[in-house]
């Protein structure tokens, strides 16, 4: 069985090529710049050259790409965009045109002068992956599944805060299905409001295999639970400190006991520790996080969780996990299968096992450490 798992963050896209004949530690992996960073760099180059640009493709993660678009416009340079690509900047297209972006149809885009630099927007690029993998003898042909994780605020209705809409979505999923894989969907079951997940499914549709899409933070936390040190304990507080967003889940025997989500840029180590203590104690409120420019917080059930070193109840993952290095909370830094940066990919594999039952037995054997049964790579045809 072969599965491609891609975890798309703000800074990097983390790629894992799973082969059930191999132990997970022998799986093939890439840590590359994220798509939004790639667009950011290309836009900055266009700004230096004073070139007009066209954004086409689908809706993708904003952040660095959106900032580069704004800088290009501030430099007095034209930006054209198709409607799907423009929603990378804002779901409200009137807000996009107010920035100075000129919306064009597909036909109008094709008729723009050759001097206009074409930038294709997408969180998942199968063509680039094919070229990257081919020299190493790897192919996207014959995959049993693809798992892709991205962060999706969702398309909030007019007048509704993106932050509130996002957190209401988290709450709804937890109440409907209390497990981390509740944030994973087969391609045909993606909620209509999750426009970035929908765009990912469109980008991946040309590869003939089953597709599962998932929220990045839930994937990272689910992957962290596969660290054997964590699996020894019945309750844990696991925080994913991402480049752009920080999300923590309090987990117990019955599932998710509580959650908070905040913007990493608004946090420093003391504030993050304060939030984690509040979630562990069950005293953190939704208003406290939302009014601090975060998404929100909810505690569902369970007794307070003692944060002590002896049972590793506080677990940290994510590219900015160093924010808690040396913390008085004495966290454990998760390294599932020896690699923190691929935690989201391992979480995707675990979610695929839940979402696609016919793949579950083989995947769970691998995640339990029995997948490749010690088979060395040179013995795999």
Topology, element by element:
Layout: E1 2-8, E2 12-19, E3 28-33, H1 35-49, E4 53-57, H2 64-74, E5 79-81, H3 83-86, H4 93-99, E6 102-103, H5 106-111, E7 117-121, H6 126-133, E8 145-150, H7 162-176, E9 184-186, H8 195-204, E10 210-215, H9 216-224, H10 228-231, E11 236-241, E12 245-252, E13 255-263, H11 269-281, H12 286-290, E14 296-299, E15 314-317, E16 332-333, H13 343-355, H14 357-367
Parallel strand pairs: 1-8, 4-5, 4-7, 5-6, 8-10, 11-15, 15-16
Antiparallel strand pairs: 1-2, 2-3, 9-10, 11-12, 12-13, 13-14
Helix pairs in contact: 1-2, 9-13, 13-14
List its traits.
381 residues; alpha/beta; Nucleotidyltransferase, domain 5; Rossmann fold; 3 domains; 6-stranded mixed beta sheet; 14 helices; DUF1786_pyruvate_format-lyase
Outline the structure in words.
InterPro entries: DUF1786_pyruvate_format-lyase. Pfam families: DUF1786. With 381 residues, this protein is of the alpha/beta class. It is built from 14 helices and 16 strands. It has helices at 35-49, 64-74, 83-86, 93-99, 106-111, 126-133, 162-176, 195-204, 216-224, 228-231, 269-281, 286-290, 343-355, 357-367, and strands at 2-8, 12-19, 28-33, 53-57, 79-81, 102-103, 117-121, 145-150, 184-186, 210-215, 236-241, 245-252, 255-263, 296-299, 314-317, 332-333. It has a 6-stranded mixed beta sheet with strand order 3-2-1-8-10-9, sandwiched between helices. A hairpin with a 3-residue loop joins strand 11 and strand 12. The longest helix is centred in the N-terminal third of the chain and has 15 residues, at 35-49. It is globular and about 65 Å long. The two termini are 13 Å apart. The model has no long low-confidence stretch (mean pLDDT 93).
């Amino acid at each position: 069985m072969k599965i491609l798992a891609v975890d798309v963050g703000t800074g990097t896209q983390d790629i894992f090529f799973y082969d059930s004949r191999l132990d997970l530690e022998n799986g093939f992996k890439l840590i590359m710049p994220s798509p939004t960073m790639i667009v950011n760099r290309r836009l900055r180059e266009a700004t230096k050259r004073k070139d007009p640009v066209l954004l086409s493709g689908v809706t993708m993660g904003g952040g660095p790409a959106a900032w580069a678009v704004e800088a290009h416009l501030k430099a007095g340079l034209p930006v054209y965009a198709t409607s799907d690509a423009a929603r990378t900047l804002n779901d409200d297209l009137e807000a996009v045109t107010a920035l100075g972006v000129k919306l064009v149809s597909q036909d109008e885009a094709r008729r723009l002068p050759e001097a206009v630099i074409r930038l294709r927007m997408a969180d998942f690029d199968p063509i680039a992956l094919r070229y990257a993998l081919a020299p190493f003898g790897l192919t996207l042909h014959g995959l049993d599944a693809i798992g892709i994780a991205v962060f999706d605020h969702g398309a909030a209705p007019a007048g509704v805060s993106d932050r509130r809409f996002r957190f209401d979505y988290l709450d709804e999923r937890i109440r409907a299905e209390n497990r981390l894989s509740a944030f994973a969907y087969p391609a045909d079951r993606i909620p209509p409001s999750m426009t970035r997940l929908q765009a990912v499914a469109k980008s991946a549709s040309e590869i003939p295999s089953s597709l599962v899409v998932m929220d990045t933070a839930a994937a990272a936390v689910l992957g962290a639970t596969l660290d054997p040190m964590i699996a020894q304990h019945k309750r844990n507080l696991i925080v994913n400190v991402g480049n752009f967003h920080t999300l923590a889940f309090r987990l117990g025997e019955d599932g998710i006991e509580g959650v908070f989500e905040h913007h990493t840029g608004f946090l420093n180590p003391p504030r993050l520790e304060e939030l984690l203590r509040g979630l562990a104690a069950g005293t953190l409120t939704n208003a406290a996080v939302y009014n601090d420019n975060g998404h929100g917080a909810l505690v569902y059930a369970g007794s307070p969780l003692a944060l002590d070193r002896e049972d590793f109840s506080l677990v940290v993952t994510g590219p900015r996990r160093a924010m808690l290095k040396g913390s008085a909370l004495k966290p454990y830094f998760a390294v599932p299968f020896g690699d923190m940066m691929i935690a989201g990919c391992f979480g995707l594999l675990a979610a695929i096992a839940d979402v696609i039952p016919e793949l579950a037995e083989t995947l769970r054997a691998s995640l339990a450490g029995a997948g490749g049964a010690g088979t060395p790579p040179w013995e795999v045809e």
